[in-house]
Amino acid sequence: MFPKPIEKQSRTAQISYQAMLPLALLLWLGPLLAVALFSVKPAADFTNANYWGMPSSFEGAFNYGQVFFNSDMPRYLLNSFLITIPTVIGAVALSCMTGFALGIYKFRSNIWIFFMFVAGNFVPFQILMVPVRDLTLQLGLYNTKTGLVLFHIAFQTGFCTLFMRNFIRALPFELIEAARVEGISEWRIFWYVVLPLMKPAIAALSVLIFTFIWNDYFWAVVLTQGAESQPVTAGITSFNAQFRAAYQLMSAGSIVAALPPVAMFFLMQKHFIAGLTLGAVK
Amino acid sequence: MTPAADMEQESWFHKNQQRIAPWLFLAPGLLFFMVYVIIPVFQSFNLSLYEWDGLGAAEYVGFRNYEDLYWEWVDRDAFYTSLKNNLIWLILYLAAIPAGLFIALFLNQTVWGIRLYKSLFFFPFVISQVVVGLVFTWFYDPTFGLLNEFLGLFGLGPLNVLGDERFVTYGIIFAGLWPQTAYCMILYLTGLNAVDPEQIEAGRLDGAKGLRMLWHIILPQLRPATFIAFVVTIIGALRSFDLISIMTQGGPFGSSRVLAYYMFEVALSEYGFRMGYGAAIAVILFLIMLCFIAYFLWSMYREEKGH
């Protein structure tokens, strides 16, 4: 292990390490903790310039109540879920198939199609912006959740294919050969042999895509406009306009908007990290 | 269907199954990806030769959009600022890699509760950039921001980071480094987990310690992690849009624009719908990205050959 395990070092080193950990964390999360503190303060603290002292009264319930019952926030949150979940399902389903095709079969254009998916995944969003917006308008899907979902599925398929294909490559190929010798059709091999083995990859991708899509802002701004279809990342700007200078409410709103992916991360930590670090180790 | 026909069909399919199957599996994903990603890239290239307001008829103007960009460059106008800021982003964003490595080394211990610490350090990456932007806007706020509170302790400030043309881009990049460092950290933590303990022991016997050990024994083994960290950081730097849009909207006086933001501003905002001009900016951004994409693909290709 590197660096040298702290247990094998002097007592002073151990104690100072233990003391440094919480300090470093406090420093690291400082800006965020500040927002958390703001979100439980009463409005009066901001008019009285009591920014950093203790809250003069604890108004967490009131502030968060305002966010949930007196703004469009629940609507935006619902939209975010209605955009994120279908995208996760769509992108994972498509990429299970593309990943299977590119991971199992040997044909001449295989590597080029694979590289096309990878390269497409890296392009700047702006080069897609005008044509995709135009296409969405022509399909009559501008300012709808469906329009956003369709684009997200398509774009995420690039990254998901990269992920799935590499995962399938690492599976024991003998399994598939054995199944072929038995005369099992390719579709059944996919469904009964490979798919069950892909469960960890599916779990990892689902959490990752959930986070990516939930946090998307650019496409939300480009393809949607109003409260009826905007996800929470775009909605929060209108929310902040509604509560201009009410820092306690803007802080509470931000925390609410950030929470679902955070919850997802803590619940599915193992899969999340496995997904993010795929390829970081040989 | 008669049994005979069924047999015949099945045998034809059976014979060609291995050739046809991959295309059937690819078809839906490939179709989606073509329509929404690959074709739009070419459409943008084409559009950059037109002048179009998004509604009426498009007028072919040849390379005039690019000429205009060239003059903006010469006059040190918005395009020049954006390009210059993109370069600053590219260079400074790379700091996430050593910073992430540093934190990973700091946290790569087995003391009680370290797992929770690792998760909490990773936390900023999970939050949307919109919220990161808001959090740092308040952090920099000249009247009550945490930064100025802190500077005040030393009798310095107040500093209006986001309102000052000299600091604004650096301030936004610093905000962006926060989640990006967390990402690099987690890559390195995973990498460090897999470092070969025997090599470390051998190194220790040879008297390697600290930085020398890190440089000669650990870092070479972390190469795959470094490569991924490099890829995601470059992409992240060139994609920077959310933070700028939330924190400054390109201001003050357009001094924090980058190409990604400038393109959006030109094509889709109150300044007018100049789709063709926006497309030309996007093409420039794409070409910059293409250099890196080519390098990434080349590295991957070598790897594939190696297998």
TrEMBL record, chain A:
One of its GO terms (biological process) is transmembrane transport. Residues 77-268 form the ABC transmembrane type-1 domain. The keyword Transmembrane helix applies. The keyword Transport applies. GO terms for cellular component: plasma membrane. It is found in: Cell membrane. Pfam families: BPD_transp_1. Keywords: Cell membrane, Membrane, Transmembrane, Transmembrane helix, Transport. InterPro entries: MetI-like, MetI-like_sf. The chain crosses the membrane at residues 21-40, 81-104, 111-129, 149-168, 189-214, 245-267. Its main location: membrane. It is a multi-pass membrane protein. Belongs to the binding-protein-dependent transport system permease family. This is L-arabinose transport system permease protein AraQ.
From TrEMBL, chain B:
Residues 82-296 form the ABC transmembrane type-1 domain. One of its GO terms (biological process) is transmembrane transport. It comes from the Bacteria. GO terms for cellular component: plasma membrane. PROSITE patterns: ABC_TM1. Coiled coil: none annotated. It is found in: Cell membrane. This is L-arabinose transport system permease protein AraP. It comes from Ruegeria denitrificans.
